[in-house]
Amino acid sequence: MDSNTLKAFLTIVDQGSFSEAAEQLHLTQPAISKRLATLENQLGTTLIDRSHRKIGLTDAGIRLLPHARKILDEIHNARIALSPDSSLIEGELQIIASHHIGLHHLPNWLHRFKREYPEVAINLQFMESDTAYEQMRKRNAELAFVTLSDSMPPSFNVFTQWPDPMAFVVATDHPLAQLKHPKLLDLAKHPALLPDTSTSTYRAVSRLFLEENLPLNPQMPTNYLETLKMMTSVGLGWSVLPLRMVDGSLKVLGDVLSKAVKTEHPVTRSLGAIGLSGRQPGNAARALLSIVQEAEADSTPGDGGA
Predict the structure, then answer these.
(1) Which end of the chain has fewer CB atoms at under 10 Å, N or C?
(2) What is the average pLDDT value for the chain, to the nearest integer?
C-alpha cells in the first residue's frame, strides 16, 4: 500500500467516477483502474462496488476511507516537516474563496503576495462557502476563505477570522428611505431581499423578526451579494449587506434594531480562513495567512468601499 494507490482510491471516491478521477490525477483511465486493483489486491478485498452505474463503496471501502485520508495527511505533514529549507516559498498553492471575499478582500492580499512571493503559482477556485467546506473535506485545496459557519465541525481549523458587520439597506428612493426612524415593523411591510435560508445571514435576520413576532417576506433569494445589492438599489426591496458594499446607490437604515438587540450592527457575520485539522499548512499557505491576518487587523468596516 503506497500513497499513489491511496490517492487513486480517494480521488475515485471524491469524483464519483473513474474517468473524472483519471482526469484529476492526469492519468489514463486504465492506469487509475490498475492502481485501485493493486490496492485491492494488497488488502485482499474489494473497495469499490462496480456493479452499478454509479460507483459506491463496499463495507471495506467505507472502513478504509478515513484511514486513507489520515495517512495521506500525515505524508503531507512529513514532507513539510522534512523540507530542507523551511523558509523557501515556492510551488503551487491551491486556495478557495467565496465570491464576496474574492471581490472585496482577496485582490489586496494577492497583489501583495505575488509581489513578495513570485515563485508561487496560485490555483484559485471561487464557490459558495457551503461548497467550499465540502471541497476542503476532499483535500481539493489547502486553504479556504469563507463565511464561518456556526455549526462548523471540529474537522476544520480556523487559522484567522474577522468580523464582517452588515447593515439594513434600501434604495435611496425607496419608501423606507423617507422614514426618519424606521423599525423592524416598517420593514415587515416590504419585500426582503436575502440569501437563502441555509445561510448565517438569513438566520440572523430571521431571529430578529421572530423576537419581535413579525413576518419576514423574503423575495427572490440568492447567495450572490452583488445581485442582492443590484436588486436593492433599484428598489425591489430592502436587504442586509456588508458595510463595505454600501455606496451611493443605497441608504443605510441605521435605526433598525430589535428591542432585544441594542447594538450598532445587529447582524454581523464572521469571515475567515480555514484548513483541515491534522493537516499542516505549507510554507506558501502560511505566508498568505500572515498577509491576511495583517491586512484584516488593519482594516476598518467600510474602508474598502464596494
Answers:
(1) N
(2) 88
